[in-house]
Design brief:
- It is a single chain.
- By secondary structure, the protein is an alpha+beta fold.
- The chain folds into two domains: 202 residues, no CATH class; 109 residues, no CATH class.
- The protein contains twelve helices and twelve strands.
- The protein has a twelve-stranded antiparallel β-sheet with strand order 4-5-6-7-3-2-1-8-9-10-12-11, with helices on both faces.
- α1 crosses α4, α3 packs across α4 and α4 crosses α6.
- The chain starts with a helix and ends in a 22-residue tail after the last helix.
- 34% of the residues are buried.
Length: 353
Amino acid sequence: MKSLREPILYSLAALVLAAAACGKKSSAPSAEVTGLAAVPASAVVVITADVARVVDSPLVARAVDQLLARDADLAARWQKLKDSCKLDFATQIKHVVLAVGPSTNGADTLHGAGPPGPQPGTGPVLMIATGKLVENEFAACVRSMVGKGGGDLTAKPLGSRTLYQAKEGNRGMFFAFGRADTVVLGSDEAYVAEALGPGKKLSDNPEMSQWLALADQHAPLWAVGRADERVRQGLVKATAGQISAGPVAFTVSADTSNGAKFEVDAVMATAADAKALESFAKQNLALAGMAAQGKSLGKIVDHIAIAADGAVLRLKANLDIADVNLLVSALDGGGPAAQDSPPAPVQGSGSGQ
């Protein structure tokens, strides 16, 4: 499975390297930061992955293969990273956290105030990677990679740390080590500095702390995020006003190490809205089940459960290996498995029209 494992981690690193650099600010660093402790309180979305438990999943491998196949520039950067650094990210990276900061529109995302920005979802992104990492080796790897493209790597003090900037053409990345085994990377210097500084972190945000408690943090892959205002308003319209307001936040957990177990929780403003959304979702799930029968995927829909729990709507799916193989085959355009094929028509049973 190594051939499938490597692109997953290389593509994560290449995605960070492909971002555009912007912003300048500095702050005094704290002693050590890693994982969620490095995520600023202003983050609106957090995604975490236990790499060893994620990379062997056929669904994840297929997603990465599709990503690289559709983005030639990303695929080239992955190959360049692999050739330049001679690093085995699949075994060296143990844990990854991705954090998305607020859009630069003046909205108070910490307290949910302020209008949506002109381009929601375009805030700065951090990648916090923990594993068997050595700072001078990592810096040499990046220097070698950007040097082949005519770029360079510079360094400057950030308190007791070293802040590196890698530039190649109009693209750039900042990174520094939060502790000996943790590197914090991002395209926005100010946000990287904020992650490494002593300021408020994710646990200091009361709303995010509440939503973090709902997520299954033991799952190989989980995420928490504030709902985009466009999603909130769109869902009210989609339900024809059955709910008074869209979800405040979402949590997601997934375990694809043995089949696929998913849970998506929508945090609603009220229990009444959660119950109304449950009814709407179940109606649409029944329609989806009918459509899935045409692709012999009816059993996949049968494994989806929807239920309201107070002000939270929970959607759960529990697929075994056979279900996952069936789903991957359908996504790849393959025919259904023999046991799932529809019965042959009875002679003379056609409509005759």
